[in-house]
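If it is no trouble, can you show me the amino acids of a protein and the tokens describing how it folds?
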Amino acid sequence: MSSRTQCTQLLKASFSGELYLSRKSLKFTQAQMAQRLCMDERSYVNLEHGESCCGGLTLLLFLIYCCEDVPKFLETNKILIESALDWVA
């Protein structure tokens, strides 16, 4: 499996969990969360279930409007991504 594929799989799993926890914390429905992230509900459900990976705009909107602890989110995902990259020392 390529490093990019590994990173994508790790991001899918991590982001889906973060979406779910953020949605519950905000007391939003999936439809409300989808609206907050400027996407249709089906696409949001796919993200929350880890069936798809987010794009740049979705990630940015999440960080700005939904994530309670951006530095922690970034650090956690940095560690995950670095675990998949063989060039990081």
